[in-house]
Write a structure and sequence with these properties.
Elements: H1 2-12, H2 14-33, H3 38-49, H4 60-63, H5 71-77, H6 80-90, H7 95-102, H8 124-139, H9 150-159, H10 167-179, H11 202-209
Amino acid sequence: MLLSLAQSIQERDIVTYDHSRRVAVYAQRLARYLGWSRREARDLALAALVHDLGKTWIGNDILNKSAALSREERLKMERHPITGARILIGYEVHPFYVEAVLYHHESWNGQGYPARLKGEEIPFSARILTVADVYDVLTSQRPYKDPLTTDEARERLLAGSGTNFDPVILQAFVHLLDITPDFTLTQHVCGISLKNLRQPGFYNMFIAGSSS
């Protein structure tokens, strides 16, 4: 079901799908580095593939806008975690995935959205996903900005330690950056057919191949 929903993202907005694919890889790597089992890390990667599912209900005039969003547009954008979580609930997927999607924009200091959760109130899965998500946004080309280098993104993340991000998780991610050559994935339109992901054993090959 999650892979079918990821395919719907791919069909609606290939840029959002490509972003989600990279975030899935980063989140899986970080989860494994933090001691999660392969299965747990795989589940988080699946959640990451659909973390922006709610954006499929936002118009291109907002998604692709190069200028700053208006207050009304920003409020619409900030509803995408709720929309995505509601879609997942409608398909009766496990609460683990719902929580990761719903809370991936919460901030450690309680100033995130949609629920303004603070610190350890935020599910651990969402805290990992937040770091992976922001790192990819920082290092990717967007209509409104140029990509940052790995070093620039590293410094930007560190500046948000204890405010935007769980400091322990962030420190682990930064260390992973420092010890992993060519950590940052190339931004491109992914040509992998998601139906192949349903074949036995293909999921691990998909994640491993994304690191090249």
